[in-house]
Specification:
The protein is mostly helical. The protein has 7 helices and no strands. It is found in: Endomembrane system.
Length: 161
C-alpha cells in the first residue's frame, strides 16, 4: 500500500459479520428446528441463557466503543494506527463485538450442538482478518503494527500483555 492510501472505512466487516451470522443461523435452523437435537433444559439452560445475555450486552458495548466512541474513522483517514482506548484491549473491537453478540444469541438457543459454532466463527474471524486487514495493516504500518500485535489480542478483549 502506498503511504498516502488508507484502509477502507468499513473494511471487510460487513462480509465477515454476515458470514458469521449465516453460520450461526444455519446451525440454529438445522439443530433446533430440522433435527431437533441438543436442546437442554433446567439448570444448563438457565446458565446458557444468562451467559448469552451477558455476552450480548458485552458485545454491544465493545462494538459501540469501537465503532462510535473510539474516533477510529479519523485514524483511518489520517493513516494513524489506533492503539489506545478499546484498541489497547483488542485489535478488532467492532468484529469482536459482533462475534460476542452472535455467540450470546447462539448460547441463548440452549442447544449444545451450537457451541462449536462459537469456535467456527472465531476461526472464520481469525482467518479472514489475517488474510485481509492484518495483512493490509502490516503493509501500511510495518514494525509498528507488528509490535502492537504482540501486545494486544486479535479477537478477545483482554488487558495488555
Amino acid at each position: 500500500m502506498k503511504n498516502k492510501e488508507h484502509l477502507p472505512i468499513f473494511g471487510i466487516g460487513p462480509f465477515l459479520v454476515v458470514g458469521m451470522a449465516v453460520v450461526a443461523a444455519i446451525a440454529i435452523a438445522v439443530f433446533s428446528y430440522v433435527l431437533h437435537l441438543g436442546t437442554v433444559s433446567v439448570f444448563p439452560a438457565t446458565m446458557l441463557i444468562a451467559i448469552g445475555i451477558a455476552l450480548i450486552i458485552a458485545g454491544l458495548i465493545v462494538w459501540f466503543i469501537g465503532a462510535v466512541r473510539s474516533g477510529m474513522d479519523d485514524n483511518i483517514k489520517e493513516n494513524c494506527l489506533k492503539t489506545n482506548g478499546i484498541y489497547a484491549w483488542v485489535r478488532n473491537p467492532m468484529y469482536s463485538g459482533w462475534w460476542m453478540l452472535i455467540t450470546g444469541i447462539s448460547l441463548m438457543w440452549r442447544n449444545i450442538f451450537l457451541i462449536p459454532v462459537i469456535v467456527i466463527n472465531w476461526g472464520i474471524m481469525t482467518v479472514v482478518l489475517k488474510a485481509t486487514e492484518e495483512k493490509w495493516l502490516h503493509e501500511l504500518y510495518g514494525q509498528e503494527y507488528d509490535d502492537y500485535c504482540k501486545c494486544v489480542n486479535r479477537c478477545i478483549p483482554f488487558k495488555r500483555k
